[in-house]
Amino acid sequence: MADEITLTLRTTSPTASCPSCGTQSSRIQSRYTRKLHDLPSGGRPVHLIMHVRRFFCKKRTCAQKMFTERLPELCRPHAQRTKRLQKALCQLGLTAGGQAGTDLGSELGLSGSRDTILRLVRQHQQPDPPKSRIVGVDDWAWKRRLRYGTLICDLERGLPIELCKWKEKVAAFGRNAGRFLPHIARKETLPITNSEEILAVIPN
C-alpha cells in the first residue's frame, strides 16, 4: 500500500473566462502543472496534480492579455491547498490554536504548519453577529487624565461588541447615554436603533 495518494486532474471545458473582463476565450497560450494538498483519505495524504492552461484574452481593450483558468470550487489562486483542506486547518486553529492545531493536524493527516494555521485564522471571516437588543456600556481610564476607554457589550449573549478609545473623558456617561450612544453607533457602526429603550449602563 502506497504511503500517499496522487491524483492527476485536468479541466474539460474548452473555454475559460478572463478574471478581469469576463470574456470567454478558447485560445490557449501554454500549460503548466500545479500541485495541491487535499484532505487525507484512509489516513493517507492526498496530492492533486493539476494540468492548468493559460489563455489569451480575446478582448483587445482588456489590460490582462493572458490569464490562467480559475478553479473557484477547488482552490484559490496561487494556493497550495484545496479550499476544504484550508477550511479544516482553519477550524483546527480556531479550536485548538496554532501549535496545538499543528500537532492535532499531524495526527489526523492534515498537513499545515503553525504559521499556515495562524494565517488561515487571521483570514477567516466571522459571520455578521445578530443585532444587539440590550447593550451594556462601561468606561474607564487607560491612563488617568490622558486616555480613556469605553467597553460596549451585548448583555444577552455576554459578548463584547466594541472597545473604543477616547482622547478625553466624557463626564457622567450614564446620565448622558441617550445623547452619547448615537455618536458611538455612528463612529463604530454598531447595530443600535433605539438607544433610550435598550441601553443598560454598567456603573464603574
Count the helices. How many? 5
> What would you call the shape?
flat
Residue-averaged pLDDT, rounded?
79
Radius of gyration over all CA atoms, rounded: 26 Å
Unreliably modeled segments: 167-179, 183-204
Q: What separation lies between the terminal Cα atoms?
A: 66 Å
| Strand and helix order | EEEEEEHHHEEEHHE
Describe, in plain words, how this protein is organized in 3D:
- With 204 residues, the chain is an alpha+beta fold.
- The protein folds into three domains: 74 residues, no CATH class; 46 residues; 67 residues, no CATH class.
- Helices cover 25% and strands 33% of the residues.
- Strands 1, 4, 5 and 6 form a four-stranded mixed sheet that branches. Strands 9-8-7-10 form a four-stranded mixed sheet. It has a two-stranded antiparallel sheet with strand order 2-3.
- Helix 1 packs across helix 2, helix 1 crosses helix 3 and helix 2 crosses helix 3.
- The longest helix has 14 residues.
- It starts with a strand and ends with a strand.
- The C terminus is likely disordered.
